[in-house]
Amino acid sequence: MNKVIFLGRFVTDPEFSMNQSGMAICKFRIAVDRACTKQGDDKKSDFFQIATFGKTAEFVNKYFCKGKPCMIEGKIQNNNYTDRDGKTRYQDQIIADNVSFTLSDTTKGQNQQQYSQNDSQNDFTGMF
Protein backbone atom coordinates (compact mmCIF):
# COMPACT_ATOMS: atom_id res chain seq x y z
CA MET A 1 0.00 0.00 0.00
CA ASN A 2 1.33 3.42 -0.96
CA LYS A 3 -0.07 6.02 1.46
CA VAL A 4 1.45 9.00 3.27
CA ILE A 5 -0.04 11.41 5.78
CA PHE A 6 1.72 14.63 6.72
CA LEU A 7 0.91 17.33 9.25
CA GLY A 8 2.91 20.37 8.28
CA ARG A 9 2.82 23.92 7.04
CA PHE A 10 3.14 25.59 3.65
CA VAL A 11 6.61 27.03 3.04
CA THR A 12 5.66 28.44 -0.37
CA ASP A 13 2.51 29.87 -1.85
CA PRO A 14 0.77 27.38 -4.15
CA GLU A 15 1.75 27.52 -7.84
CA PHE A 16 -1.44 27.02 -9.85
CA SER A 17 -1.63 26.18 -13.54
CA MET A 18 -3.69 24.28 -16.09
CA ASN A 19 -2.22 21.56 -18.29
CA GLN A 20 -2.89 21.26 -22.03
CA SER A 21 -6.00 19.14 -21.46
CA GLY A 22 -7.45 21.71 -19.03
CA MET A 23 -6.78 19.91 -15.74
CA ALA A 24 -5.92 22.15 -12.78
CA ILE A 25 -2.50 21.50 -11.23
CA CYS A 26 -1.21 22.97 -7.98
CA LYS A 27 2.34 22.52 -6.69
CA PHE A 28 3.73 23.64 -3.33
CA ARG A 29 6.24 22.72 -0.63
CA ILE A 30 5.49 21.89 2.98
CA ALA A 31 7.66 21.54 6.07
CA VAL A 32 7.02 18.65 8.45
CA ASP A 33 8.63 18.80 11.90
CA ARG A 34 10.68 15.84 13.07
CA ALA A 35 10.17 14.43 16.55
CA CYS A 36 12.92 15.58 18.93
CA THR A 37 14.90 12.66 20.29
CA LYS A 38 16.46 14.48 23.25
CA GLN A 39 15.24 17.28 25.46
CA GLY A 40 16.87 20.53 24.42
CA ASP A 41 17.58 19.43 20.84
CA ASP A 42 16.81 21.95 18.13
CA LYS A 43 13.65 21.28 16.19
CA LYS A 44 14.32 20.00 12.67
CA SER A 45 12.02 19.79 9.69
CA ASP A 46 11.83 17.84 6.47
CA PHE A 47 10.62 19.54 3.29
CA PHE A 48 8.43 17.88 0.66
CA GLN A 49 7.31 18.86 -2.82
CA ILE A 50 3.56 18.26 -3.19
CA ALA A 51 1.40 18.17 -6.32
CA THR A 52 -2.36 17.97 -6.50
CA PHE A 53 -4.82 17.95 -9.38
CA GLY A 54 -8.38 18.84 -10.37
CA LYS A 55 -10.77 20.17 -7.73
CA THR A 56 -8.21 19.59 -4.98
CA ALA A 57 -5.75 21.87 -6.82
CA GLU A 58 -8.40 24.57 -7.11
CA PHE A 59 -9.24 24.22 -3.39
CA VAL A 60 -5.57 24.52 -2.35
CA ASN A 61 -5.02 27.53 -4.59
CA LYS A 62 -8.07 29.31 -3.16
CA TYR A 63 -7.62 28.67 0.58
CA PHE A 64 -3.91 28.10 1.34
CA CYS A 65 -0.82 30.28 1.36
CA LYS A 66 2.69 30.31 2.78
CA GLY A 67 2.67 29.67 6.55
CA LYS A 68 -0.71 27.87 6.69
CA PRO A 69 -0.81 24.59 8.61
CA CYS A 70 -2.26 21.63 6.73
CA MET A 71 -2.81 17.91 6.65
CA ILE A 72 -1.90 16.10 3.44
CA GLU A 73 -3.02 12.58 2.55
CA GLY A 74 -1.66 11.03 -0.59
CA LYS A 75 0.91 8.76 -2.14
CA ILE A 76 4.55 8.83 -3.17
CA GLN A 77 5.15 8.70 -6.89
CA ASN A 78 8.54 8.00 -8.42
CA ASN A 79 9.24 9.77 -11.70
CA ASN A 80 12.31 9.32 -13.83
CA TYR A 81 13.85 11.32 -16.64
CA THR A 82 17.02 11.36 -18.71
CA ASP A 83 19.39 14.23 -17.99
CA ARG A 84 21.61 16.03 -20.54
CA ASP A 85 24.36 13.44 -20.03
CA GLY A 86 22.00 10.59 -20.89
CA LYS A 87 21.79 9.32 -17.30
CA THR A 88 18.47 8.24 -15.85
CA ARG A 89 17.53 10.36 -12.83
CA TYR A 90 14.80 9.59 -10.30
CA GLN A 91 12.63 12.02 -8.40
CA ASP A 92 10.10 11.26 -5.69
CA GLN A 93 7.04 13.47 -5.36
CA ILE A 94 4.02 13.42 -3.09
CA ILE A 95 0.69 13.39 -4.93
CA ALA A 96 -1.97 14.75 -2.56
CA ASP A 97 -5.41 13.18 -2.80
CA ASN A 98 -6.78 15.05 0.26
CA VAL A 99 -5.77 18.43 1.67
CA SER A 100 -7.26 19.66 4.96
CA PHE A 101 -7.07 22.59 7.32
CA THR A 102 -5.78 21.64 10.75
CA LEU A 103 -7.28 22.57 14.08
CA SER A 104 -4.32 24.86 14.76
CA ASP A 105 -5.41 27.04 11.82
CA THR A 106 -7.63 29.54 13.58
CA THR A 107 -7.79 31.92 10.62
CA LYS A 108 -10.50 29.88 8.88
CA GLY A 109 -12.89 29.68 11.85
CA GLN A 110 -15.97 27.71 10.90
CA ASN A 111 -14.67 26.98 7.41
CA GLN A 112 -12.62 24.06 8.71
CA GLN A 113 -12.96 21.62 5.85
CA GLN A 114 -11.25 19.06 3.71
CA TYR A 115 -11.34 18.55 0.00
CA SER A 116 -10.85 15.13 -1.48
CA GLN A 117 -10.18 14.51 -5.16
CA ASN A 118 -10.92 10.99 -6.31
CA ASP A 119 -8.46 11.06 -9.21
CA SER A 120 -6.28 8.40 -7.57
CA GLN A 121 -6.91 6.02 -10.47
CA ASN A 122 -5.25 8.47 -12.89
CA ASP A 123 -1.56 8.42 -13.66
CA PHE A 124 -0.14 11.95 -13.49
CA THR A 125 3.39 11.09 -14.66
CA GLY A 126 4.85 13.83 -16.78
CA MET A 127 2.15 16.38 -16.02
CA PHE A 128 4.35 18.70 -13.97
Characterization of this structure:
Strands 1-3-4-6-5 form a five-stranded mixed β-barrel. It has one helix and seven strands, in the order ββββαβββ. The longest helix is centred in the middle third of the chain and has 10 residues, at 54-63. It has 128 residues and is mainly β. Helix content is 8%, strand content 47%. It has one domain (4-34, 45-116): OB fold (Dihydrolipoamide Acetyltransferase, E2P) (Beta Barrel).
Short description:
The chain is mostly beta strands. The protein has one helix at residues 54-63; strands at 4-10, 15-18, 24-33, 45-53, 69-82, 88-100, 114-116.
Reading the helices and strands in chain order gives EEEEHEEE
Count of discrete structural domains: 1
Major sheet characteristics: 5 strands, mixed, barrel
Shape verdict: globular
Topology:
Layout: E1 4-10, E2 15-18, E3 24-33, E4 45-53, H1 54-63, E5 69-82, E6 88-100, E7 114-116
Keywords:
OB fold (Dihydrolipoamide Acetyltransferase, E2P); 128 residues; five-stranded mixed barrel; mainly beta; 47% strand; single chain; 1 helix; globular
